[in-house]
Design brief:
736 residues; alpha/beta; GIY-YIG endonuclease; Rossmann fold; 5 domains; six-stranded parallel β-sheet; 30% helix; binds adenosine-5'-diphosphate; binds zinc ion
Length: 736
């Protein structure tokens, strides 16, 4: 091939297309190269080879590649995957490629990590002086000697070492810091657990599957043990495995579990690594030192060469979607990897996403289930507490009388309690305290969001004396269709004046615990207390080790963590989740409740969950309380179908921003009209809506969303180019 398309490593900007150079010998797809650019050299990677030039280029003007760097090329599959991401998520190959390379590498740090080793070359050389003799002796005794050890040896001198190297008495060789993993030479430990019959069966079916597997197993049903078996099998076959977990909080305990079997032959990726650390982990994979990769979503781009297995644990989690360009969805990327490498794919969850469940139902995935908990423990009993009754009893605490009583019992029995505070979409819905009535959009069936224009922007609590009437300037807005109305001053259902937005924060809950149970040891895990580099880790360990009686936390405590002494979970206000202005709010709430409930009553104790709500009759809450996933999801899919939401249609979301709200909305209106004409002209069945974003104003900029909904909405890109500055999110997870 004559020409190479090259992604050049430099700051991403407006101009980020690939560049064309003439190939030189040994230039292949995935090669790391150095190319002339303006009057200096830049590094890059070859992403395409052709014999023909695109018409706007002329052969004389094309410069040759300067040199191919002595680094093993990236696999052709990785390059194809980057191309897929660029095409599917409407971004450039360069931006897609950026996902595959750590920042430090992008900045030019391309040398593979090595360590120097020293050996004696001449047995009885002519040495001068005591220092040289001692240094020679030090190397002789520990050869091949590495500098770290040498430094510790008596009489060793770095200067003499240099002299001896120059004389040719000692030789120096560079050796990879990360030697290749050889499964034949590795001492694999035998498994300590005997699989249950159910686990055996699932494992067998995974091995027979010709499609991705959706493993639907309730919490504590032994999914992780299945992952372990399949990972070890993959590694033993000389292939690589990637295990993805939704959040950094989960990484330490998962890594511990697998370290037991693979020691340090594991590369770990998560968002809190420094650039240097990330580069090291990248090399562990690139060199073949670590056959197992564990991490949050970015780990899916580890530089594997012979991929055999990809597992997404808790596959329904929203953190698998990247919320910046390119807005990729890890599931979608993994599916493509499965095809490119012929790798096995396992999507595991106790509450599979509606999309995955639907795919399994329609034959895209093999559907496997684990219905029993390993130790046959019962799932926790979930008590729905009607907060409207508490309100009538004039109990204005954030805790119902039942929850207070149960916390008291647990503290007496020295058992632990988790209080869960759902904070997403805090204080956005308007709910009647007396009857639970919620204001919904008449067109979209989605909770309307309160937009406050008054100065009182802090989050209210449940205390009645703080209840005030909504300000007349406040408006309720639908974030799908921009419908808006003034909030009701009295409830249309029951005429109660206590119709107000709801919300409780973690700090407020902590204060209340301290007031009611001053003797309890309390710790709070939320964004404020887990910001440091260690994240949730220290709190997790302290709580597990019994340093605290009560853990108050947000979403981050809802996932795969295993606390054996927790026998009570309080869900302070379930309604918050119910009223996110998004068509996925019910699904999300069901998932969170199931996950939270799964955190208690492990190992012999039946747990209890107290779920507080103003809507005890809501079908989602009822089904969560009776642990009925299938019932819930079938109903949910029926609704989605009738309203045309995913998975029955797909969406594309554009985010548009501007400093002048009037101009911004006019511009969007104009573009919307252009699009509607295009749809009409080309007979495209696409729905389009625009509305202010959920957080319509940040840092003095206004944010709007334009949503396309159709069976295949990306078809519009064949007819239309989004205006500059419109950010494109294909298959958005957050639609408002
Ligand atoms: P999940 O990932 O489905 O929540 P885990 O794999 O963590 O479930 O299993 C729950 C608990 O049961 C863990 O403590 C695990 O070590 C244990 N376990 C799993 N499989 C077995 C088995 N076959 N025999 C005994 N204990 C098991
Ligand atoms: Zn009411
Ligand atoms: Zn609407």
């Amino acid at each position: 091939m004559k020409y190479a398309q090259i992604v050049v490593f430099r700051k991403l900007g407006a101009f980020d297309s690939e560049l064309t150079y003439k190939t030189i010998q040994s230039c292949q797809i995935g090669s790391f190269v150095e190319v002339p650019f303006m009057n200096h050299f830049l590094k890059g990677v070859v992403v395409g080879l052709t014999d023909t030039l695109s018409p706007e280029l002329s052969d004389e003007k094309i410069k040759p590649v300067h040199q191919v760097l002595a680094i093993p090329p990236l696999g052709g599959q990785s390059v194809q995957l980057a191309r897929f991401i660029a095409a599917y998520y409407q971004t450039s190959v360069t931006r897609a490629f950026r996902l595959f390379l750590p920042a430090a590498l992008w900045k030019g740090k391309l040398a593979p990590p090595v360590r120097m080793l020293y050996r004696i070359k001449e047995d009885s050389p002519d040495l001068r002086g005591e220092k040289q003799k001692q240094t020679f002796e030090a190397v002789r005794q520990s050869q091949p000697a590495d500098p770290e050890n040498l430094k510790l040896m008596d009489g060793f001198s770095a200067a003499s070492l240099k002299t001896l190297l120059k004389k040719g008495v000692i030789e120096e060789t560079a050796e990879s810091l990360y030697p290749f993993f050889d499964p034949k030479a590795f001492d694999f430990k035998s498994f300590s657990k005997t699989l249950t019959a159910d686990q055996e069966e699932v494992l067998q079916k995974i091995r027979e599957a010709d499609r991705p597997v959706l493993l639907h197993g309730i919490t504590s049903s032994g999914k992780t043990e299945i992952y372990l078996r399949e990972i070890i099998r993959t590694v033993q076959a000389g292939k690589q495995a990637i295990l993805l977990v939704p959040e950094i909080a989960l990484t330490p305990q998962t890594v511990c579990y697998f370290k037991d079997f693979l020691n340090d032959r594991i590369a770990v990726f998560h968002s809190k690594l420094s650039d240097g650390e990330r580069l090291k982990e990248w090399w562990k994979v690139k060199t073949g030192y670590a056959p197992l990769v564990i991490g949050s979503r970015s780990a899916v781009f580890a530089p594997v060469s012979n991929l055999g297995l990809v597992i997404l644990d808790e596959e329904h989690e929203w953190t698998y979607k990247q919320e910046s360009t390119p807005y990729y969805q890890t599931q979608r990327v993994a599916e493509e990897m499965g095809k490119l490498w012929g790798a096995t794919l396992i999507f595991g969850s106790a509450t599979p996403s509606a999309e995955s469940y639907y795919k399994a139902e329609t034959g895209g995935y093999v559907y496997l289930t684990l219905k029993e908990r390993i130790h046959q423990e019962e799932l926790p009993a979930i008590h729905l507490v009607d907060l409207r009754d508490e309100f009538k009893k004039r109990n204005f605490s954030v805790f119902s009388l039942m929850l207070q009583q149960k916390i008291k019992e647990r503290l007496e029995n020295k058992e632990q309690v988790i209080l869960f505070v759902n904070q997403r979409g805090l204080a956005s819905a308007v709910v009647c305290r007396d009857c639970g009535y919620t204001e919904l959009c008449p067109h979209c069936d989605i909770a309307l969001k309160l937009h406050r224009n008054s100065k009182v922007s802090h989050v209210s609590c449940l205390v009645a004396r703080e209840l005030t009437r909504p300000e007349t300037r406040d408006t309720l807005v639908c974030h799908y269709c921009n419908y808006s109305k003034a909030p009701e001053l009295v409830c249309p259902e029951c005429r109660s004046p206590y119709i107000k937005h709801v919300g409780v924060g973690t700090q407020r809950v902590e204060e209340e615990v301290k007031r009611l149970f001053p003797q309890a040891r309390v710790v709070r895990a939320d964004r404020d207390t887990t910001q440091g580099k260690a994240g949730f880790d220290p709190i997790y360990h302290d709580f597990r080790d019994g340093c605290y009686d009560i853990l108050i936390g947000t979403q981050m405590i809802a996932k795969g963590l295993d606390f054996s002494n927790v026998s009570l979970i309080g869900i302070v206000l379930a309604d918050i989740g119910l009223h996110r202005p998004d068509f996925r709010s019910s699904e999300r709430l069901f998932q969170v409740l199931t996950q939270v409930a799964g955190r208690c009553g492990r190992r012999g104790k039946r747990g209890e969950v107290v779920l507080q709500t103003y809507n005890p009759d809501h079908p989602t809450l009822k089904k969560a309380a009776s642990h009925d996933y299938t019932d819930f999801i079938e109903e949910e899919l029926k609704q989605r179908k009738s309203l045309g939401y995913p998975p029955f249609n797909r969406m594309v979301k554009f985010t548009v921003t501007g400093q002048d709200e009037t101009k911004l909305s006019a511009r969007i209106q104009q573009e919307q009209e252009v699009l509607e004409d295009i749809f009409k002209l080309n007979k495209l069945d696409v729905k389009i809506v625009s509305a202010p974003a959920l957080l319509p104003k940040m840092a003095n900029r206004y944010y709007y969303h334009v949503l396309l909904r159709a069976e295949n909405p990306t078809i519009v890109f064949d007819h239309w180019k989004p205006p500059k500055g419109w950010r494109i999110d294909v298959d958005p997870v957050h639609t408002t």
